[in-house]
Write a structure and sequence with these properties.
Residues 32-218 form the Phosphoribulokinase/uridine kinase domain. Residues 1-23 are annotated as: Disordered. This is Uridine kinase. It contains 13 helices and 23 strands. By secondary structure, the chain is α/β, with parallel strands linked by helices. It has two domains: 7-232, Rossmann fold, CATH 3.40.50; 239-446, Rossmann fold (3-Layer(aba) Sandwich), CATH 3.40.50. Strands 10-20-18-16-13-14-15 form a seven-stranded mixed sheet, with helices on both faces. A five-stranded parallel sheet has the order 4-7-3-8-9, with helices on one face. A four-stranded antiparallel sheet has the order 1-2-11-12, with no helix packed on it. The longest helix is centred in the middle third of the chain and has 23 residues, at 216-238. The structure holds adenosine-5'-diphosphate, the ligand Nc1ccn([C@@H]2O[C@H](COP(=O)(O)O)[C@@H](O)[C@H]2O)c(=O)n1 and magnesium ion. Residues 37, 39-45, 166, 170, 212-214 line the site of adenosine-5'-diphosphate (ADP).
């Protein structure tokens, strides 16, 4: 077991270890962006613009060029016959291992490449981990293993005549080439490889930037997106007890449906239920469990675990009740208490009803409310639980979306409680509604809206 991800302690009633996971899947990883495009399309220029706009973030730029194989003496003699635009010209295994090391938050040594000598330079560059890693190069979207590491894939799409004229200019001035060689290389290798490998990789891009660095609007949008993503990462960094479930396209698709104002009540309930189930399952993964060995029907020993038994759910009426079925489906016979908080004015909250299990103080509590907005109701509900003797670190607050304001309000007051959510939204508006949000959850789920 990795000691960073799991802590173990002896339980009081027996000789087993109980193991508390801190949610290994949420280990904070850097945001990795791939930027591909034809030669001289403006990849490096676009990357530098993104980096300068992300001024208060730690960003590093890695060039695929650094991973060119050095030419042997034999290859150097026939350099005019060498295709630098073919995927085999790169040491992709080394690139993958360097990117994986950086993604895991460790420093790595990246080779330096000399375009004049077609060789790696003796001294390499030590690169420290960062919040954002940008990997730039003609073929960074070609290999699926490299693509799979990326959180965002960009393709810079610039007219080929513009690219050729820039390439002539750059290679003659900066790379010590003569114009005949540049044109010959372009016709023989650069253009055919662009058509065979680079251009087809465009279909993997999330964002295509026409006109490269001239496209300020696209670059602004990309920077905004990265900032939003980093905002979420940062909240998880500030509060280690905030866990956002691992996002997949399935989850994104469900969010798209439940957030869409046009979605019917039937579909809203269906997809909200699916998301709730995922959040509940994820939340249960944060409960302590006890190791247990059993004998299978084949007579073999299986080392497993036993679920935590002293558990209960508490739903915040009325929206939280939508999460009860998922909890019951996962935890047979679970006790579920209720809390009703009345909203007075903009931020006033008042407890008007609670019905909780008598022995709640000795239980782990899963607090259910699908939307964490300002955090006022949540703070009130958690205060009720604490007043009943529930241990703060035994509370897991489960919701579908959280506003940063609500996370700050809850985590500052209750730093030992855990929040498990499926997405962190951008902000609250002046009416304390989550933006982009999903509207009045209770009305949409129970069909009481207009
Ligand atoms: N929008 C632009 N307008 C004018 N020149 C540009 C523009 N974008 C890039 N360049 C120039 O074109 C050349 C190639 O750009 P670069 O960003 O290095 O491309 P790449 O990394 O895709 O090969 C550089 O000399 C750069 O200064
Ligand atoms: N020794 C080398 C290595 C590469 N090239 C060319 O560089 C191009 C990639 O760099 P960009 O900044 O233009 O993306 C690629 O098209 C290779 O042809 C080279 O000429 N010599
Ligand atoms: Mg470049």
């Amino acid at each position: 077991m990795d000691s960073d991800m799991v802590s173990a302690r002896r339980s009081s009633d027996d000789n087993h270890f109980s193991v508390q996971s801190n949610g290994g899947s949420e280990l904070k990883q850097p945001f990795l962006i791939g930027v591909a495009g034809g030669t001289a399309s403006g990849k490096t220029t676009v990357c530098n613009m993104i980096i300068s706009q992300l001024h208060d973030q730690r960003v590093i730029l890695v060039n695929q060029d650094s991973f060119y194989h050095s030419l042997t003496d034999k290859q150097l003699q026939k350099v005019h016959e060498y295709n630098f635009d073919h995927p085999d010209a790169f040491d992709t295994e080394l690139l993958l291992s360097c990117m994986e090391t950086l993604s895991n938050g460790r420093a790595v040594s990246i080779p330096n490449y000399d375009f004049k000598r077609h060789q790696k330079i003796d001294h390499s560059r030590m690169v420290n981990p960062a919040d954002v890693i940008i990997l730039e190069g003609i073929l960074v979207l070609h290999d699926s293993r490299v693509r799979d590491l990326m959180n965002m894939k960009i393709f810079v799409d610039t007219d080929s005549d513009v690219r050729l004229s820039r390439r002539i200019q750059r290679d003659t001035v900066e790379r010590g080439r003569n114009i005949e060689y540049v044109l010959d290389q372009y016709a023989k290798y650069v253009k055919p490889s662009f058509e065979e490998f680079v251009l087809p990789s465009m279909k993997h891009a999330d964002v295509i930037i026409p006109r490269g660095a001239d496209n300020d609007v696209a670059i602004d949008l990309i920077v905004q997106h990265i900032c939003t993503k980093l905002g979420q990462h940062n909240l998880c960094k500030i509060y280690p007890n905030v866990f956002v479930i691992y996002s997949t396209f399935q989850i994104k698709g469900m969010h798209t449906l439940v957030r869409d104002a046009k979605t019917t009540k039937h579909d809203f309930v269906f997809y909200a239920d699916r998301l709730i189930r995922l959040v509940v399952e994820h939340g249960l993964g944060h409960l302590p469990f006890t190791e247990k060995q059993i004998i299978t029907p084949t007579g073999s020993v299986y080392s497993g675990v036993v679920f935590c038994r002293r558990l209960c759910g508490v739903s915040v009426i009325r929206s939280g009740e939508s999460m009860e079925n998922a909890l019951r489906a996962c935890c047979k016979g679970i006790k579920i208490g209720k809390i009703l908080i009345h909203r007075e004015g903009k931020d006033g909250r008042q407890l008007i009803y609670e019905k909780l299990p008598a022995d709640i103080a000795s239980r782990h509590v899963l607090l259910l409310d699908p939307v964490l907005a300002s955090g006022h109701s949540a703070v009130e509900a958690i205060s009720v639980l604490l007043s009943k003797g529930v241990v703060e670190s035994n509370i897991i607050f489960l919701n579908l979306i959280s506003a940063p304001e609500g996370i700050h309000a809850v985590c500052k007051k209750f730093p030992r409680l855990k929040i498990v959510t499926s997405e962190i939204d951008v902000s609250l508006n002046k009416d304390l509604r989550v933006i982009p949000g999903m509207g009045e959850f209770g009305d949409r789920y129970f069909g009481t809206g207009v």
